[in-house]
Amino acid sequence: MLCLNEGRMLNNSWENIYELAVNEKKRERGSSMKDITQKYLKSVKKLFPIYGKMERQYIKNLQTPLQEYAEEKEDLSYEELTEEFGTPSHVISEYFSEVDEEYLFRQLRIRGYVKKFLIFVVIAFLAFNGYCYYWAYQDYLNAQDQHIMYKEIIIEEN
After folding, report:
1. Does a structural domain hold residue 116?
2. Residue 107 sits in which domain range?
3. Which of 20, 26, 97, 138 has the most Cβ atoms closer than 10 angstroms to its Cβ?
4. Nearest alpha-carbon partner for 62 in 38, 30, 32, 35
5. Could you give the number of structural domains in the chain?
């Protein structure tokens, strides 16, 4: 009997069945390892107070050893990653010990300015809408005062 798998024809023997099972297991393990490493990297990313060019580069540099470690391990768990590389908070504290303080303070200052500017824009937008609503309501009240709801006609007989 012949079996077609991934574009190859294989004899249906015990070795080929075993090979198919092993390949399927590797494929499943590969996706779960990728999920675990991505979860670890996402946990690290969440802890950055700012996420600029240097932080993206740090994550890329961390991603390579993570993937190599995941490929070496048979069954990888999140706990094994934290034992090998440290908890995400430990990784962030290492990053802060390595990074230039001036860069960090400058980025935090810029982030503060942007945050204040956005708050100002939102408040100005709300104030402008409130002002427009007030004048629209005043126009509505004036229109009600000027609009004749009913007219009373008195007819007198002579």
Report:
1. yes
2. 101-145
3. 20
4. 38
5. 1
pLDDT in tens, 69-86: 888 887 888 898 899 999
Helix (H, G, I), strand (E, B) or coil at 76: coil
Beta bridge partners of 11: 2
Rounded-to-integer distance, Cα 88 and Cα 64, Å? 16
121 lies in some domain: yes
CA distances from 99 to 54, 64, 73, 94 (A): 9, 20, 31, 9
The model's pTM is 0.58
Helix (H, G, I), strand (E, B) or coil at 43: helix
Distances (CA, A) of 130 to 30, 40, 70, 76, 136: 56, 46, 57, 57, 10
